[in-house]
């Protein structure tokens, strides 16, 4: 059974994806357990001495000046969870919930949270036995962390709320019983806050989205290369010298990818063969795709930092026996990159739709039949495929408006600036799905156009991609129920299989 050991190392985005999507098990190493226990001892000392410390012996938010007695500690933590579980809307996908759970575990093992080892192990047990709390998508301000979503996660640990088990939604107590898990009988000092005061909902969405986005940026290059061949594009604009003198790595890498993909193609031309230059959607692919790739690389770096961050409050520093109330729960370091990711992905979709328009428009397609059908008039061909793509990219323009520029004060203005980072993440994920749909439609159109050229001598990489699509999606000779073709192509590019096949031939796509 594949496992992720949480010890002293930093977890990678791939580690989180393996737990979230492929049900890798999670195990704590001895040093992680030691860190948890050491920090917990400090919290127990504070409680025993009656030391005033935020969230340990006081209330929360605006109630931070209310001192809580030792006898009320357990009630304080339980009440925190049940009162904060205020999420609304549809549940997060189970893969996002699993990512949230492992991210929270990883944060708690750093030794700055003061939670009991027993409580961390209970969260791991739920994860490993695939009991997934029902966590509504909406309700987080992204500071103080993702309070509402993470509270729903903790409800299931206590045998409250709802959970999914083996694909069925049910009361948590039933899910725990079926999985052979005893609910956690209580939370004690600091634990409720340690579990919910963090950025793990927005980060979970961000981890899965950046992983998919980086793969989609490679698919976008493949789609663009196929369209370039279908439109007898000019390869001179891909000359490495052009991109070296500007210097942006994403641009340089994209030009290299495209040249590798079309290497050996008989459908590609040079400037002056048929025309002097191509339109921007072809000629500027390195600049457009490359800018999005540079953005995605920056975003990946920021998300990798947050994956391994301690984001609750207060923080425990065992070496000096201090508890410091600060602001690591604030989602701004994620909110801005997640908004940026939405914009970067929207642009990949924008230029893809413009290439699709050139494929279907007889005034722009360099000799292809209108709407990629031999029987125009009786048949509409790919006419409405482009409509659908245009609709989706227009929706992306609305979704790409940044969430992070908004803030609504909360907790009687004690929390007077919030990040809206979880909204930014959810929007970026929706934009990613929309962009994947548009690129799937472009690939369908490009393969159709290549077949209509009849003499389709493709490049080394594009031939692999074309054959991969044609294994499941055939040439459209006459009008068909088109959405099934679109959905199938979307499915085919939703994992790494096509990328892997292409990379076996042309080397790693950048």
Automatic annotation (TrEMBL):
Signal sequence segment: none
Maturation and modification: Contains an active site 4-methylidene-imidazol-5-one (MIO), which is formed autocatalytically by cyclization and dehydration of residues Ala-Ser-Gly.
Pfam families per record: Lyase_aromatic (PF00221)
InterPro entries in UniProt: Aromatic_Lyase, Fumarase/histidase_N, HutH, L-Aspartase-like, Phe/His_NH3-lyase_AS
Top-level taxon of the source organism: Bacteria
Gene3D superfamilies assigned to the protein according to its UniProt record, in alphabetical order: Fumarase/aspartase (Central domain) (1.20.200.10), Fumarase/aspartase (N-terminal domain) (1.10.275.10)
Keywords attached to this entry: Cytoplasm, Histidine metabolism, Lyase
Subcellular location: Cytoplasm
Main location: cytoplasm
Family the UniProt entry places it in: Belongs to the PAL/histidase family.
Descriptive protein name: Histidine ammonia-lyase
Underlying gene: hutH
């Amino acid at each position: 059974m594949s496992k992720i050991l949480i010890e002293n190392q930093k977890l990678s985005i791939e580690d989180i994806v393996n737990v979230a999507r492929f049900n890798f098990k999670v195990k704590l190493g001895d040093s992680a357990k030691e860190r948890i226990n050491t920090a917990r001892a400090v919290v127990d000392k504070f409680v025993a001495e009656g030391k005033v410390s935020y969230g340990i012996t006081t209330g929360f938010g605006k109630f931070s000046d209310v001192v809580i007695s030792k006898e009320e500690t357990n009630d304080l933590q339980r009440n925190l969870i049940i009162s904060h579980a205020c999420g609304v809307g549809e549940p997060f996908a189970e893969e996002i919930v699993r990512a949230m759970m492992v991210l929270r575990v990883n944060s708690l093992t750093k030794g700055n949270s003061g939670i009991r080892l027993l409580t961390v192990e209970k969260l791991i047990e739920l994860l490993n036995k695939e009991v997934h709390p029902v966590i509504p998508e909406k309700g987080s301000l992204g500071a103080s962390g993702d309070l509402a979503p993470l509270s729903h996660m903790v409800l299931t640990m206590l045998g409250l709320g709802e959970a999914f088990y083996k694909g069925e939604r049910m009361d948590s107590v039933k899910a725990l019983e079926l999985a052979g898990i005893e609910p956690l009988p209580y939370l004690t000092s600091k634990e409720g806050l340690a579990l919910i005061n963090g950025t793990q909902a927005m980060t979970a969405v961000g981890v899965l989205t950046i992983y998919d986005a980086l793969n989609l940026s490679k698919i976008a290059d493949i789609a663009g290369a196929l369209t370039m061949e279908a439109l007898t594009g000019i390869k001179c604009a891909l000359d490495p010298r052009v991109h070296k003198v500007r210097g942006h790595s994403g641009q340089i890498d994209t030009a290299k990818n495209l040249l590798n993909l079309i290497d050996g193609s008989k459908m590609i031309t040079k400037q002056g063969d048929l025309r002097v230059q191509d339109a921007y959607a072809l000629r500027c692919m390195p600049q457009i795709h490359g800018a999005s790739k540079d953005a995605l690389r920056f975003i990946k770096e920021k998300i990798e930092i947050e994956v391994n961050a301690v984001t609750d409050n207060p923080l425990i520093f065992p070496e000096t026996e201090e508890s410091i109330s600060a602001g690591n729960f604030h989602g701004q370091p994620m909110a801005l990159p997640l908004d940026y990711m939405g914009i970067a992905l929207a642009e990949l979709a924008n230029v893809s739709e413009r290439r699709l328009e050139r494929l279907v428009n007889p005034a722009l397609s360099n000799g292809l039949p209108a709407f990629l059908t031999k029987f125009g008039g009786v048949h509409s061909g790919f006419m409405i495929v482009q409509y659908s793509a245009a609709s989706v990219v227009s929706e992306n323009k609305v979704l790409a408006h940044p969430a992070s520029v908004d803030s609504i004060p909360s907790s009687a203005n004690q929390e007077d600036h919030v990040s809206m980072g979880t909204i930014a993440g959810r929007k970026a994920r929706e934009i990613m799905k929309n962009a994947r749909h548009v690129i799937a439609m472009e690939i369908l159109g490009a393969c159709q156009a290549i077949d209509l050229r009849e003499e389709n001598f493709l490049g080394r990489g594009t031939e692999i991609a074309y054959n991969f699509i044609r294994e499941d999606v055939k040439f459209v000779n006459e009008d068909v129920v088109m959405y099934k073709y679109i959905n199938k192509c979307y499915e085919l590019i939703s994992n790494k299989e096509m990328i892997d096949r292409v990379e076996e031939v042309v080397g790693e796509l950048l």
